[in-house]
Amino acid sequence: MSAGAGLAEALAARMDGLRGQLSGEAPLAELTWFRVGGPAEVLFEPADEADLALFLKNLPAHMPLLVIGQCSNLLVRDGGVPGIVVRIGRTMSAIAIEDGYRVRAGAGAADVKVARAAADAEIAGLSFLRGIPGAVGGALRMNAGAYGREVADCLVEARALDRSGKIHVLSIEDMGFSYRHSEASDDLIFTEALFGGEAGEREAIRQEMDKITRERGAAQPVNSRTGGSTFKNPPGHKAWELIDKAGCRGLEIGGAQVSEKHCNFLINTGAATASDLEALGEEVRSRVARACGVELEWEIRRVGVSLDL
Hints:
Layout (H helix, E strand, L loop, with lengths): L2 H11 L7 E6 L13 E6 L3 H10 L6 E4 L5 E3 L4 E7 L7 E4 L3 E5 L4 H10 L2 E2 L11 H7 L2 E2 L2 E2 L4 E7 L5 E5 H4 L13 E8 L1 E2 L2 H18 L5 E2 L12 H7 L6 E2 L2 E3 L7 E3 L5 H19 L8 E3 L6
Parallel strand pairs: 2-5, 3-5, 4-19
Antiparallel strand pairs: 1-2, 6-7, 7-13, 8-14, 9-10, 11-12, 11-13, 15-18, 16-17, 17-18
Helix pairs in contact: 3-6
């Protein structure tokens, strides 16, 4: 029995009543948009918030814990992820319309589905979510934004669990939002968000979303194995312009390539490793620093251990 399988079995034995799926040495690559990376030592996919609370309450406090969602902005290193990976997915993706032009969505709900539900309910102000790959949990964690708006503009409150399984309800002030960042504790696992919009007209909202879809398709490599925007826009600059100026458009390392279409996107051309992608990103950062005097900051989250170590 592998170490991961043994750990999963030991955890299951101390968690009577657990309903979610607990597995050892669980592959992660096919869950990520890049389609690279090693396995999770243990992967837990909770059945719902109560199931996750039970798991957290019985999880040893010293055990490393990583939370993932749709993995659209995540690079899992080739050596995999030690400890526990919790995946918030379809079982926590319910979307409901509430009074006052509000939309309540589980952390596993795809951002695009939240946008569509709002449009169907004639709630304006959430169309920008159509342009954000990924799910609500990740959008909360990084204050995701696109097309002139961000989560901070529409969030009413967020619901989360801490490492002891205790529920917390966070106001917009509690979230401490800034550009692509939240000050909310890393120990909190988001389970739900309440978004607020305003009265709108269904057809006008759908036309706005269609425009976003067209613009994304024209400007971004949406049908490639990519991880979304690689670097944050530095103050006063656009990352893609700096990358282009540094001569990195189309640059390749192994099976990884800087997109020819939008050079703030890295692409797995088919045989890339996580090491290829990370090395390419670091090469881009180095060239931009030399050519432009600007230090690019990763927007893609890199997790796990490298096989190069």
